[in-house]
Amino acid sequence: MADDTEDVELDFAADEQERARRSAVIRHPLASFFHLFFRVVAILSYLLCDWISENFASCFVLIITLLSFDFWSVKNVTGRLLVGLRWWNQIDEDGKSLWVFEAKKTTRGNNIGTEAEARIFWLGLIICPLIWTFFFFTSLFSLKIKWLSLVVASISLQVANLYGYLRCKTVGKDGLPPDTHSFTGQHLLQRPDIIFGIL
Amino acid sequence: MAAAEEASRPFAGLSDVSISEDIPVEGDISVPLGSTRRDDEFSTLDEPVKETILRDLRAVGNKFVHVLYPKRSTALLRDWDLWGPLLLCVTLALLLQGGAADSDDQGGPQFAEVFVIVWFGSIIITLNSKLLGGTISFFQSLCVLGYCIMPLTAAMAVCRIVLVGGSGTVSFAVRLAVVTVSFGWSTFASTAFLADSQPPNRKALVVYPVFLFYFVIGWMILTFSPSQ
């Protein structure tokens, strides 16, 4: 039971559909599906490559293509939809490179994912690089060197997203950007609903 | 008179009051935004993703055009992306396959070797230019080096076509000419983009590894021979 001092959300304005959407377990089924789809299919292709095709090159191209699509979709779409995090790199006018990590504050009425989606997101993000690291050691010790190049490429693609989102997450926890004075893009600081962290 | 004046400018006396910077001023202003515009962009997954994809494709195509006509511009540098280099690397590796690489002889480079040479070579060149004091960032340099492989990939396609006709002296001469031209083009294009970011007395030290890099790729293309 909520005690008397707790605020109770009163949503007179929300209609049936809105309420159903807010109380759904998974708000973005398509994004959740695609978040896991490319990664899992890439891992399965690596394991079943001998059955798919005898040609090493086609398997290589298939896995790299799948992981590139996965990298793009996790970075640009599913991170924003499922957990409200985003990271990117921009070059300012001086030619200096700036890494920006963005975390959305959980205000009411936001369409970020539920807890189930957040769990799907982080589990998918963490477990797949671990599996690829395991493949790294198996291919290293069985001396299949050409597969090693594929595994190294896969690990770098997957770990890049993992690292980016972990940095977004720590930014969200701290609340304040570490070094506001050195940042030149003042216009970005005027958005009140976003917390920034800047490299 | 004075009272009326003071009444008309009630805050006049406060014009020189300022808050000392030692005193922390904090508070919480929450602006009730409606559903943010950016969320609306992705509320339906289909349409906006198509737009994003088209935008990325247009950016990649734009960079390819800039490699074809290399002038000193910052288009390649400002919005870097690694899609072009990935595509070119895959195409080059697939073209360098065929014949001799399927059997395990040392006839041609294996598929993964091309990848390793291109990416590892680009990383080494980038590290070299950064150690020499270049101002370009890591991924920008990878982007430029990757996109400038395009003339060599085109040369590889032409060589494959020429080799269909035969592999005698004439075809070798034609291939040599094509590869030399495209090697010069690649090196010229990449130095046109990279040169500005280097300190002036180190330009040769930076250009030399780029020269070597494209030379190795050109060599792989020229010495490619299909299996009989």
From TrEMBL, chain A:
<dbReference type="GO" id="GO:0000139">
    <property type="term" value="C:Golgi membrane"/>
</dbReference>
<keyword id="KW-1133">Transmembrane helix</keyword>
<protein>
    <recommendedName>
        <fullName>Golgi apparatus membrane protein TVP23 homolog</fullName>
    </recommendedName>
</protein>
<dbReference type="InterPro" id="IPR008564">
    <property type="entry name" value="TVP23-like"/>
</dbReference>
<feature type="transmembrane region" description="Helical">
    <location>
        <begin position="30"/>
        <end position="49"/>
    </location>
</feature>
<dbReference type="GO" id="GO:0009306">
    <property type="term" value="P:protein secretion"/>
</dbReference>
<feature type="transmembrane region" description="Helical">
    <location>
        <begin position="120"/>
        <end position="141"/>
    </location>
</feature>
<dbReference type="GO" id="GO:0016192">
    <property type="term" value="P:vesicle-mediated transport"/>
</dbReference>
<comment type="similarity">
    <text>Belongs to the TVP23 family.</text>
</comment>
<dbReference type="Pfam" id="PF05832">
    <property type="entry name" value="DUF846"/>
</dbReference>
<keyword id="KW-0472">Membrane</keyword>
<feature type="transmembrane region" description="Helical">
    <location>
        <begin position="55"/>
        <end position="72"/>
    </location>
</feature>
<feature type="transmembrane region" description="Helical">
    <location>
        <begin position="147"/>
        <end position="166"/>
    </location>
</feature>
<keyword id="KW-0812">Transmembrane</keyword>
From TrEMBL, chain B:
<dbReference type="GO" id="GO:0006888">
    <property type="term" value="P:endoplasmic reticulum to Golgi vesicle-mediated transport"/>
</dbReference>
<feature type="transmembrane region" description="Helical">
    <location>
        <begin position="206"/>
        <end position="225"/>
    </location>
</feature>
<comment type="similarity">
    <text>Belongs to the YIP1 family.</text>
</comment>
<feature type="domain" description="Yip1">
    <location>
        <begin position="69"/>
        <end position="220"/>
    </location>
</feature>
<feature type="transmembrane region" description="Helical">
    <location>
        <begin position="111"/>
        <end position="132"/>
    </location>
</feature>
<dbReference type="GO" id="GO:0000139">
    <property type="term" value="C:Golgi membrane"/>
</dbReference>
<feature type="transmembrane region" description="Helical">
    <location>
        <begin position="172"/>
        <end position="194"/>
    </location>
</feature>
<keyword id="KW-0472">Membrane</keyword>
<dbReference type="InterPro" id="IPR045231">
    <property type="entry name" value="Yip1/4-like"/>
</dbReference>
<feature type="transmembrane region" description="Helical">
    <location>
        <begin position="144"/>
        <end position="166"/>
    </location>
</feature>
<dbReference type="InterPro" id="IPR006977">
    <property type="entry name" value="Yip1_dom"/>
</dbReference>
<keyword id="KW-0812">Transmembrane</keyword>
<dbReference type="Pfam" id="PF04893">
    <property type="entry name" value="Yip1"/>
</dbReference>
<protein>
    <recommendedName>
        <fullName>Protein YIPF</fullName>
    </recommendedName>
</protein>
<dbReference type="GO" id="GO:0005802">
    <property type="term" value="C:trans-Golgi network"/>
</dbReference>
<keyword id="KW-1133">Transmembrane helix</keyword>
<feature type="transmembrane region" description="Helical">
    <location>
        <begin position="80"/>
        <end position="99"/>
    </location>
</feature>
